[in-house]
Amino acid sequence: MQQTENQWPIFIVVATGVFMSTLDSSMLNVALPSIMNDFQSSLHRTEWVVMIYLLTITVSLLFWGHLGDLLGRKGIYSIGMLLFACGSFLCGIAAGIHLLIFSRLAQAVGAAMMMSSGPAIIKENFPVEILGRQLGMIGMSVSLGLMTGPALGGFLIDTYSWRAIFFVTVPIGFIFFILASIILPKSEHAHSLEKFDTVGNTTWAIAITLSLVAITASASAWSNPTFFILPALSILVFYLFIKHEAAFQNPLLPYALFKRRFFSVAIITSLLSFAVLFAATILTPFYLDRILGLSASRMGLVMMAIPVTVIVVAPIAGHMSDSIGSRIPATLGLLISSISLFLLARLTPDATPFSVAARLAALGCGQAMFLSPNSASVLAHVKNKYTGVSAGLLATARNLGMLLGVALSGLVFSYLFGKYTGGLDMKDFGMQHIEPFMKALHASYYTAAAIGFCGVIISWLRGPGLKRK
């Protein structure tokens, strides 16, 4: 392991990139109603501001991770910081919803480059005896970004506009691009591109993209041939991906890991857990804005209930996992998350902000109870040679779950709201549409709760005996 004298400057550079990417994501959900109002865009279009970011990270995270292993991580991380800053600036000046979506794609490429390289840079440059503490502090950067994002985003939107949430990260990004280029050391073990799975990465990206487009297009394409063509194409490309991976010497997804029950269950439940979380976080701001009439700053305070609870509960869940294993706390966490979605589905048009925050706090508690034990159940039981790819697959599963949560909840809501209002979209919402809004919202939350309960069953199947020794 390479160790350098300027370890703390390296840590600050990596932690800043992590903080910026999570801060941006947590601010954006509060801004979605304002973006929809400014551009008069449909819910389907507005969702893509979030989904293009998650999609790009999901399909490229493993790509950049492998490329960093082969070519070195300094260049990947530094260029990622620059791309993120440029993407943020383009988001801030976007003149239309489509330009904003394109700019978010550029931003997401930069975020994926940083996310794939950051933890590995920390591992390479800190001694093993304090590595856990440094990775824990990186986790604090994530939590700090998630916690401050909703409140800061709400303040910026009320004081300036939604564009300010993007401009705030631009100068930081450019400054730390320069610092990363100077401070980060070059990797000593760069390899040839011959081992890179180009076909696997390409088919993986195409399959995920086709699947997402098929889901989001379903709300308005039930009688259109596209409704049948896109799912068929995505299944075909997934088949080609699996067939290629089975024959490739250095596959993108190592099948040896997926044959182990503890690993496959952890990946599947991670996906389902984040689908539940993002089904709530994408729709709740619209409820707070359209139904309760809260300002952006008050919306941010309500949405902060999730990350604040996560920060408080996550260490407790980690201790539980160390003491009794992962099965009980991870399954309990998914159960709490599912119940919280059921409670959100019982919201009424005259609910108080506090009652919404209490339900979101329960969701945050469940997510925190699940995440640490679930990750530990993987990373504590895989061989060292699989540690990096396992962490990458967990991150990919999380992002894929976020994507599915946004896409499915948006599909259910858009279809039912249009059905109950004679074909209208959320951009056409008026006070006379409160009842159809609530019906569509409740159905979306119930769908997410059902997904969560499926996750509870699967999580219990991970079996006992995964307690760390």
Protein traits:
mainly alpha; Growth Hormone, Chain: A; 0% strand; globular; disordered C terminus
List the helices and strands and how they pair.
Layout: H1 7-39, H2 43-71, H3 73-93, H4 97-125, H5 128-159, H6 164-167, H7 170-183, H8 198-217, H9 226-247, H10 255-258, H11 261-291, H12 296-303, H13 305-324, H14 327-344, H15 353-379, H16 387-421, H17 434-460
Helix pairs in contact: 1-2, 1-4, 1-5, 1-7, 1-11, 2-3, 2-4, 2-8, 2-16, 3-4, 3-7, 5-12, 5-13, 8-9, 8-16, 11-14, 11-15, 11-16, 11-17, 13-14, 13-15, 14-15, 14-17, 16-17
Describe the structure in your own words.
- There is one protein chain.
- By secondary structure, this protein is an all-alpha fold.
- The protein has three domains: 1-186, Growth Hormone, Chain: A, CATH 1.20.1250; 198-251, no CATH class; 254-469, Growth Hormone, Chain: A (Up-down Bundle), CATH 1.20.1250.20.
- It has helices at residues 7-39, 43-71, 73-93, 97-125, 128-159, 164-167, 170-183, 198-217, 226-247, 255-258, 261-291, 296-303, 305-324, 327-344, 353-379, 387-421, 434-460.
- α1 (7-39) runs antiparallel to α2, α14 runs antiparallel to α17 (434-460) and α16 packs antiparallel against α17 (434-460).
- It is globular and about 60 Å long.
